[in-house]
Amino acid sequence: MSILNCYNCRKLIARFVDLYLTFTLLNKDEPLVFNGGYLFLQKLYHELGLHKICSEISKKYNFDFNLNSVLSRLVYSRIIYPSSKLATFELSKKFIEKPDFDLHHIYRSLDFIAKESDFIQSNLYSNSLKISKRNTAVLYYDCTNFFYEIEEADGEGLRQYGFSKEHRPNPIVQMGLFMDGDGIPLSFSINKGNTNEQTTLKPLEEKILSDFGLSRFVVCTDAGLASISNRKFNSLGNRAFITTQSIKKLKEYLRKWALNPEGWHLSDDSNVYNISTLGENIDKLTAEESEKLKNKTLFKERWINDDGLEQKLIVTFSLKYRDYQRNIRSSQIERAQKVIDSNPKSIGKPKQNDFKRFIKKTTCTKDGEIAEKNFYDIDSDVIENEMMFDGFYGVCTNLEDSASEVIKVNHRRWEIEECFRIMKSEFKARPVYLSRDDRIIAHFTTCFVSLVLYRFLEKKLKYNFTCHDIINGLREMNFKEIKGEGYEPIYTRTNFTDVLHEAFEVRTDYQILSKNKMKNILSFTKT
């Protein structure tokens, strides 16, 4: 048969196929589009040995379902399709590899995940050392809480009324989290919602000392967690502490010293500065010179003895921070005045840092007689008192390192706050609908594992993309299954997908991926 005849034959067959497909309905309830973004998470999941951790737990309890399949889908879905456990079961069917478990296996798995939460955390850390060096010289600790949409607290359970950081009236549970110096979570604990935050640090740190093989590190916290007891605890052995210190709450003689405009220094500069003259001629400077001056951070330091604890108090001052605080206050005063003018009846008891703290209520006349109605005005005394502290920031430590090094370490505390934000916003870890304590712990264990995976993914991508870019990019990496042939990528190739493929040394962005090619990719992600 001639080449021309072969060509015409193929062309005829193609026309018949096209004609057949044109009049052939899709199979009912048969999905054809699947997510493949999870494959990059699966690669990290296996590199971190989570499948082996699941295998050890399975052997210990000898159950008959696939814990690894359940945990992996809970983790991938928490990042890509955050939802309830019921919805997660359905959404996990969107992945190229179908789940090999039923819904009741998810709830059974939660029981064992909760029991082995400490085992999962410590082994996840030790496994992570095989793929990346962990920066454990400095550990950051903080607490947050998660609310439940229920009316009453548990009798003795985790869900209790406490101070909600989101100012909600619902019962809450509390999470304490340790993070390493690169922003990767290390360990966590779940406590009752009415627990004093300061008491949560020591038990979790003791777990790190015993289970993680760590003994030499600096613990960095905010002032709310830095009780004298916690500071003394972190003065033992090879440990140390760095914590923020409220200037307002210092003893009077220390507060006077801190606010004194004289005796200030700059790093690598032997001069002594008076901050009262720092911004005197700022209007005469060029924009570049003005910005440079505002970005300078001056400091003073001294050793103090507080309740038998020797520690160094470092106070910093910057024009940039001063202006930032004044801008925030100016906006709050405007809001306060607007409420006074338009709706004074809505003025209630102010909360901490609430704009209503600038409103003064008068309930008597100038003659001292009881007034028939309340009078409201801006409280200039409160404003003046707050302005005294504008631009100042305090840190305490038992380290002998330079002030600039201590300040640099402390400035990275924002990363642990970002961990909480990702959990709450991107991973939708709350509100929580689980009621049993063990399942609550299991839920947050999966959130913790998801956060560890996500942080390692950020690191692998060299921190070039935002959280939204990464999660959205993975979610949109869909493939259309072409029966008998393979998979067609139906996502847009972007800079993100290029960097992702280069980082993992695998490509899914060819015009079509044959069945064998996809099979090889699936195998690759499990090594």
Explained architecture:
The protein has helices spanning 3-22, 38-47, 50-61, 67-80, 85-91, 103-115, 117-128, 201-211, 228-233, 252-259, 287-294, 319-342, 380-387, 403-410, 414-426, 437-460, 467-475, 495-504, 515-524, and strands at residues 33-35, 138-147, 172-179, 185-192, 218-221, 240-245, 264-266, 269-273, 298-306, 309-317, 359-364, 370-378, 392-397, 478-482, 486-489, 513-514. It has 527 residues and is α+β, with helices and mostly antiparallel strands. It folds into 3 domains: 27-115 and 484-527, no CATH class; 122-318 and 391-460, Transposase Inhibitor Protein From Tn5, Chain A, domain 1 (Alpha-Beta Complex); 320-387, no CATH class. An 8-stranded mixed beta sheet has the order 4-3-2-5-6-13-10-9, sandwiched between helices. It has a 4-stranded antiparallel beta sheet with strand order 1-14-15-16. It has a two-stranded antiparallel ribbon with strand order 7-8. α2 packs across α16 (437-460), α4 (67-80) packs across α5 (85-91) and α6 (103-115) packs across α16. It is globular. 32% of the residues are buried.
